[in-house]
Amino acid sequence: MKDRIKSLLKEKNAILLAHNYQPAEIIDAADLCGDSLELSIKAARTDAEIIVFCGVHFMAETACILSPDKTVLLPRTDAGCPMADMITPAALKKRLAELPPMPVVTYVNSSAAVKALSTICCTSANVIKVANSLDAPEMLMTPDRNLAMYAASKTGKKIHLWDGYCPFHNALTPEDVMRVRAAHPDAEFMAHPECPPDILALADVIHSTSGMIAYAGTSSSREFIVGTEIGILHPLRKAHPDKRFYPASLKMECLDMKKITLADIVHSLETLTGRVTVPEDIRLGALAAVERMVALA
Ligand code: 13P
Ligand code: SF4
Asked: Which residue has its alpha carbon closest to ligand 2 atom 3?
């Protein structure tokens, strides 16, 4: 299956991008892996005519926003992000009408239509930089309330919250972390900023998914407890075979991130099905918010 994918990618002048949470066999077949920020930048810079995006819908949409002339394929178009579904353009418009004028920072885990109503986008890798880049003491941050509380704690800005969250990161409890800590007392605890504040308070370091992979390489620790979706364990172990990684909780499995199979990739490339598109008026609005973010990178 991997050989077939390789030859189809060559034949069609296509590139395979995979998010760090994808199944191990997809990470191993991909041309490039990364976190949301890296994948947006890599998608914008590729010369390939077709981008096969192994991740969830908003990630493929971001690739479309940045590269309208390319064909973006999501081998399972039903792979979504429950957090991204916790905000709609209509609900955001209603909230904005209730607030005094202020910038809107929207996490990339959102639809293109929501991005189009926002001042700037952010990811878990750059949220602090983005909030600090705005010449405003207060802002609305959507849709992840945990990421917004984290940004507020690090920047001192007044951040109005949207009541969204990742069901998998939000479900991690201090008891889960303590249990794994008791079993591995020398391990450092790395947490993703989508985790709730009581978890972030226990973390030794807070990073995006690729930030965790980079940090594990620079840290002198040999063992790490990983507070994010369990798919990250494969790229972490691949990058650092001499170190040990323990999941903070096996409950942290994003089912949407596990939908795509190697067979789906072959089918999508053979038939060019699973194409993701964004209407041009929405794309242009979203592009402004995404480009402002990418310019800070
Ligand atoms: P990263 O940008 O850190 O890879 O996170 C994306 C995501 O969906 C986290 O749940
Ligand atoms: Fe969305 Fe959470 Fe899955 Fe990330 S892990 S894609 S935030 S549901």
From this structure: 254
Q: Which residue's CA is the nearest one to ligand 1's atom 3?
A: 208
Nearest in space to 227 (alpha carbons), one of 147, 144, 168? 168
pLDDT tens per residue across span 188-228: 999 999 999 999 999 999 999 999 999 999 999 999 999 99
Cα of 36 from ligand 1 centre, angstroms: 6
At residue 105, what are phi and psi to the nearest 5 degrees? -100, 120
Q: Which residue has the tokens 């178009």?
A: 77
Q: What is the pLDDT of residues 142-171, one digit of tens each?
A: 999 999 999 999 999 999 999 999 999 999
- Look at residues 222, 225, 128, 217 and name the one whose alpha carbon lies nearest to residue 177: 225
- 48 contacts: CB under 8 Å, gap ≥ 6: 13, 14, 15, 70
H/E segment holding residue 29: helix 24-29
What DSSP element (H or E) covers 120? strand 120-122
**Cα angle vertex 257, ends 267, 178, to 5°?**
155
Which residue is associated with the tokens 């998914």?
209
Q: What count of other Cβ atoms lies within 10 Å of the Cβ of residue 45?
A: 9
Task: Say if pTM beats, i.e. exceeds, 0.90.
Answer: yes
Write down the residue that tokens 């077949």 correspond to. Answer: 29
